[in-house]
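Supplementary notes for students who missed Thursday's class. We covered one full example, reproduced here. Read the sequence, then the structure, then the short commentary at the end.
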Amino acid sequence: MELQSRRQLLKLSAAGATVSVAGCSLLNGSSESESTDPQNDAADSSSADSADVQSDTPAEGSIAVAADISDEAASQLQQEAQQRQQEIRQQLADGELNQTQPQEEYRQAQSEYENSQIELIADSVEAVETHIVDTDGLEVKQATAEAGALLVDGGAEPIVRLLSLNTVVALLADGEYSRLTQQQ
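Structure (token representation):
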């Protein structure tokens, strides 16, 4: 799968899933209304106490997490691939390669690029898994390193905080996990 199309798909999918997770936590009592009327403040104190109880028990559920290469690693990988293509062109121009050899060289360079990309995505998944293991309230149910996909159980708040990791590019509905793993 081409790196740019994967990133575009994940970015588009992420917006809806993030709003869904955030919306679930809001429905769970994490938003509070403010009152400036002292008479209503006394009456609202009992409902505020029940809201506090609700917000202490965040919504639990499963979500698919899409991990990808950091922008810096992707840029470096692309630069290396472009540099290799330039070297092949120069070897052809210098007469070091005959007319059929560049095709094989390009195929080999493409294969190396794809293998490096898969390896970097697997490293990203491993980093996310390590973070999840170290985070209370989260658990990895399944992971497919080659696809950059994890299926995670946990509360809404710790799940949304996964977006702070530079290798997490999307939080998607749990049903999207199988789609992510089939795209590899």
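Commentary. Residues 18-58 have pLDDT under 50 and may be disordered. The CA atoms of residues 106 and 142 lie 35 Å apart. If anything here is unclear, bring it to office hours.
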